[in-house]
Structures are given as structure tokens and as C-alpha cells.
Amino acid sequence: MTEEDEAAFDEFLAARSTALLRTAILVCGASASDAEDMVQNALEKVYRHWPRIRHDNPEAYARRVVVNGAISKARRRKVLQEITFAQPPETPVESPDLGLRDVLVTELRKLPARMRAVLVLRYWEDLSEAETAALLGCSVGTVKSQAARGLARVRARMENLEGASA
Amino acid sequence: MNVEEALREAMAAQVAGVHAPPSLGQAVRRRNRRHVVRFRTAGAAVLTAAVAVGVPVALTARPDTVPAVGSLAGTGATGSGAPAASASAPGSGDTVAVPGGVVPDVVGKSAAEVNALLKEAGYTVRVTKVVTDEAPAGTVFAQMPQPGTAAPAGAAVTITIATTAAPAPTTSAGPEDPRMPQDLGDLGDGRTLGGVHVGYLPEGLEWGKWSGKDGFGKRSYTTSWVEPGLEPGMYSVQMIVYRKDAASVLAKRMQGYAGQGAKPIEAGGRKAYLVSLSEGGDQINDGGTRTIVWTLAPGVGVEVMISPDYAAKLGEAATDKELEKIAAGVALNK
Fold it and tell me: Please, one GO biological process term (chain A) (predicted)?
């Protein structure tokens, strides 16, 4: 690793590490410290292969490590209050003072890890279905169905909320 | 507002305040050194093996096979060394060989202007948005690759556009306040719920002071026990009791575990599955949450899990032993 490589890596960190950490937080649905650990792990892999991959979209590589790490590590660290595939509760909203965003983020966290990753990659990273599929190593069809199910879940929650405030 | 937009905004707002710490570079390099040490040890083993196999060959081989062994040692000693930088590395060859343009500096310009500019230069423009006060809304807040980086025509340039947050809901309840449900009220020591009694729990745990009903299907009941001082929303041991409809759903899941190759064990005289589960609870997953599931009586199923944090503290063997002991101690509450 030359000094120039080192400097370029620092530049890469300065430019991209915040974005990576944000994605990690959204994908993990876990605490910020878990996400940071995952990002460090991914960046270490990037650093290890830096001279080879620095001109070959290192960010995409790092993102792939983060997202797949988050999925395989998906663990129930927090108390499970309802089964993640269950229908949203029929009661309108438990706490009307919760803002729409909080509700959506909470809903996002309840989704299974892979479904959550699909939504984050599609709607936060703005990746296409094909790009998302390539990153997750699954078919485009899987991306479509996971996104549809995830969105349906979130939509149902949103309509509940709107119904309650109307 | 459609759901995609709402979700996009919620996600942006959720992480707007997050910034990577400046110490990240140091932390990454520190990790890398740890990795290199391990790699070096592994390299030495490979070298030994290569020499062991190589000696008889080397006696008859051409002299140019010897440096090959030498370069293996070099790679082992330097970790990510010069060999990786050569153009022979798969994947990097094309980008290096194609003389591309240079990515212009677009930070601070308006998004529309930048879009046209980059497209004209032959780049594919990818847009992400971030809610921030650090740049005027509608301007480019960050770009990737950095200005001045050589990139071939057709390469993707990601621009991050600053957006303003919509009026923020004035709730102070952060995601760390999970508002634990109290569906079953005060359970005393928390050991009796859903018609079952928990006779044994690992020492030092107390009731988590919450309970949920029907979250896991009609007639399901759940609560947890924690080590004192654990932050709200976390658990050490959680139990879910499934009855009637919920129990039949659990029974199907147990069949699923058997289908995935899990072997039943015996706990308290009953057949149980002791497995590591994914977040959704239907997949067996290495490194998942350690969970024991069994049918206590016709129409009554029980699931007990130990949180990954508590499991790490107990150790693998003790975690499994505790789960088996808890399972053996659960009985119908007569």
C-alpha cells in the first residue's frame, strides 16, 4: 500500500463513511453502535484490498459487505413484541402523538432483515431492482416480491395512522 | 403522499443526524493490523506446506519455480502487498486501462445544473437525498467519486442532494423508548402467564415488567426477564406462550425446523427443538438467537429464547443448558 493509496483511502472515508454508516443503521434496524461495528468491519475489508478495488467502485463493495453482514447477523437483540410477518394490528394507533416518520421507521425495524434491506436499498440508496438483486445475491423477482410485501406492510400502517387523524 | 416517498423521507430523517466519527480511519487500520497478524500466521503455515510439498519438486524443477515460493512468503509478510496492485487482479483491469475523463467538482451547485453537466460529460447520474442544514436545499451536498478522480465515460456518479426536513413532529420519544406494552397488567414476579408457570430461571434475573398479548397470533402471551439495569426494550430471557390458534402456527414452525434438519432433544420429558433462529423466527440460522421450542400440552406451545447479548455472557454451552433447564421447569398452571 503506497502513501498515495493511504491518502486516497482517507479521502474515500471522508467522502463516503457517513453515507455508509447511515445505510448500515437503516439496514440493521439495530443500535448505532452495532451499525458502526458493521461499517468498521466492511471498511477493513475495503482497506485490505484497497490497491486492487480503489478504482472499481469501493463504495459498492463496502455496501455489499455491510448489507449482507446485517442480514446474516440479524438477531433478536430486542424484545420481540409481535411476530414480524404478522398483519399490522387492527387497532388504529396506540399512541397518536407518534409522528408518521416514527411510525414508519418503527415499522421498518419490525420487518425481517432481508425485506428491510430491500426497502433501504430501493428507496434510500435509490438502487434499481436489478442492482438490489445483484447486491443481495438474489433474483429480481425476489426483490420485487420482498419490496411489495414490505411496502404493503408499511402502507397499512400509514393508512391506519391517517385514518386515526382524519 | 405515497408510501415510497413517505418511507424515503422517514429514512432520511432517521439518519440525518448521524455522522461517521473522525476516528473511523484509525479504527479500521487497527482492525486491519489485527487481521494482518492472523494472516501472517496463516501465511507461514501455507509456506511450510508449500516447502514440504515443493522440496522434491524443486530438486528437479527449473530455477524459476523457486522465486514463486519466495513471492508467497512476501505476500504473507506484507499482508496486502504489491502483487495485488498489479493490473492482473481480476475486475480492476478494465478501469485502469480505459483512459477516462475526470469527474468535475459539482458540490454546491444546483441539482438540475449538475444533472445536465454530468450527463453531458458522459456519466450516469445517480441521485440520493439527505436532510441537512449544512447546505442549501436543492444543491449538491456530496459527490462520489471525488472531483478530479479519473472515471471512464458511462461510470456512475452519485450526487447527494440536500433537502430540508418537513416540519418535524415534536415528539421526544426516541426509538430507544419502545413503550413497552402492559397487556396483562402486573404479573408480580412475572413467572405466571398464559396459563403456564415458569419454575426455573437463571439466577439474578428479574421480571422485565411488561407483557404482550396476541402479538404472535390469537391467544399468544409474552414477557421477558432481564438482568437488573438492562435498558428498556432489551431482554435476557423472553418467553412466548402459544395457545389454540397460535399454538398451531407454532407447531407448523416446528415442523419447518425438522424440515431444515434440526434434531429434537428432550427437555423435561418432552420433545423440544433447540435451535438458532433468524430474526423472522422461521429460519435456522448460524449465529441467530438461541431458542428452545416445544409443545407443553395439546394446544399449548412454548418458545423461550436467550438474547444474543446474554448468551455471549453465559457462553454457548451454558446458554443451551439454561434453556433446557428453563424448559424443563415450565408447567401448566393448575
Answer: DNA-templated transcription initiation
